[in-house]
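Q: Joint fold for the lines below.
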Amino acid sequence: MLRRFGMPPRKRVSQTLMRVLLKHGGVVKEFASGQQVVREIADELGLNERQRSACLETVYRKEGRLKKSLLWHRLLFRAADALARHGLASRPTRTARLTEQREWMLTEKGLDEALGLCGIPAEKKESLPLRSYEVQRIASTLARSARAEDYDPFDRGKNTVVRQEKSTLRGRGFRQAVIDAYDCRCAICGLKIRSPDALSWEVEAAHIVPSGLLGKDDLCNGIALCRLHHWAFDVGWLTLLDSYRVQVSPRVDGLPPTWGRIGGYECIRALAGNPGRIRLPYREEIYPHPNAMRWHRENVFYGRDR
Ligand SMILES: [Zn+2]
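A: Joint structure:
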């Protein structure tokens, strides 16, 4: 049947599926609800109309029923199933346990293989906005984590070598969790914008206690900030009060009046005295922790006494 219609071999379908998954940031909707993706894969494979519409007929003798399904869809499901069996992708039912979305998602192993298929060096994985099942699992665990009253924002006692080995996956999980928790917006100014290919968000996952000083990779020590406010937060122009309001350094008054402006918008000065809280996640347990914010006020921020 496959040969009669000149259908591509399953391996080629699997490889095409992996490339399309990579193009979509490592994740696509399950095929039944994502017809656009199904069309995209068919286009990549160069299927003609005859191949796309060829039907497979299955006779259910007991029920006396004849079921028709598209041959091409069957081939795609089998290819996706093979990826899951080889540990290269997670099935929609499994992914849904983490994200409540029924999606095919590449695993780390699948991601490495897909990067190879696309000729992208493996080192680039860290800087690309890609999801993998393992990264998503860390992000989902972080998003559900409980909050301790005596929270310590430092990863004390971990030696640097162990930290470095674990850090890449954990760091990607942290980024994912923070950006998801803040709905891809800057907590301070609300900016939300993504790249034209829809893969990456402008917003960054900032550590309150920096990771270079062994600050923890978790949501109590994280906040989503646009690049500008991330920089201003890291160098001490801004800090957060326990009421989740922004405090601006008094040193801003010493700046030339034309500095820190984009058109009429004062990037830092405009935040001074703002009575409103920053934009926070949907769950209080994952708000920035007062212990991390206090450390930032005392060690990074340029207040009156510094
Ligand atoms: Zn911002």
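Q: Anything notable?
A: The chain has ten helices and eleven strands. The chain has a mean pLDDT of 91.
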